[in-house]
Amino acid sequence: QVQLQESGPGLVKPSETLSLICTVSGDSISPYYWSWVRQPPGKGLEWIGHISYNGITNYNPSVKSRVTISLGTSKNQFSLKLTSVTAADTAVYYCARLRPSSGLIIDYWGQGTLVTVSS
Amino acid sequence: DVQMTQSPSTLSASVGDRVTITCRASQSISSWLGWYQQKPGKAPKLLIYRASNLESGVPSRFSGSGSGTEFTLTISSLQPDDSATYYCQQYNSGWTFGQGTKVEIK
């Protein structure tokens, strides 16, 4: 059974960088794609971007200038960095797995971690 | 950008009712559509992929249909455990979610 777990600071100051790590267990990074999705409190879901097992990235245009998703130095981790954050970036951040055999549908999600942007 | 519009935003139905949720895309997405169920405080759970394929382990009372720009999620006999918010998601051009449909049990 695949499990994903987000980790990182729950509070980030405005204008600083949000950094999260997702640790994957129960399966290999390859041949899947790995994604970040966020959900502001009480609102809907927003895809942030994803990275393939061989490092190819694809980002939502709404955050493209501020976001970097990368594979971790540990083989079963990937990360999210979002620069110049504002209160609008306050959300539950989910890491997720994309299944290539079904056209890159999200099939597994982490439990999510709340990140609050506030001074 | 492909916009996804769900209707209704909320619905209230009784146990045993047949429930249908509609999702419309702003342009054709072929069959690249998924449906998710999300309960409060939990991550979404995949129900349907490629518009009509039931994910392993999901009860058969859930079904999906459609192609192009119009899609539906049907719950054939609503159960108490189905109280949740349901999201459609297109993955033809980028990845975009609908705004969600909250299903309540009367």
Number of strands of chain A: 11
The assembly state of the depicted protein chains is heterodimer
Average pLDDT over all residues of chain A? 94
Low-pLDDT segments, ≥5 res of chain B = none
Structural class of chain B: mainly beta
User: Structural class of chain A, please?
Assistant: mainly beta
Please give the share of residues in helix of chain B. under 10%
Gross morphology of chain B:
globular
Distance between the termini of chain A: 39 Å
Low-confidence stretches of chain A: none
**Total helix count of chain A?**
0
**Approximately how much beta-strand content do the residues of chain B carry?**
over 45%
Describe the structure concisely for a colleague:
The complex is a heterodimer of chains A (119) and B (106). With 119 residues, chain A is mainly beta. Chain A is built from no helices and eleven strands.
Task: State the main characteristics.
heterodimer; A: 119 residues; mainly beta; seven-stranded mixed β-sheet; 11 strands; 0% helix; globular; B: 106 residues; four-stranded antiparallel β-sheet
Question: What order do the helices and strands come in, and which of them pair?
Answer:
The complex is a heterodimer of chains A (119) and B (106).
Chain A: E1 3-7, E2 11-12, E3 18-25, E4 33-39, E5 46-52, E6 57-59, E7 67-71, E8 77-82, E9 91-99, E10 105-109, E11 113-117
Parallel strand pairs in A: 2-11
Antiparallel strand pairs in A: 1-3, 3-8, 4-5, 4-9, 5-6, 7-8, 9-10, 9-11
Chain B: E1 4-7, E2 10-13, E3 19-25, E4 33-38, E5 45-49, E6 53-54, E7 62-67, E8 70-75, E9 84-90, E10 96-97, E11 101-105
Parallel strand pairs in B: 2-11
Antiparallel strand pairs in B: 1-3, 3-8, 4-5, 4-9, 5-6, 7-8, 9-10, 9-11
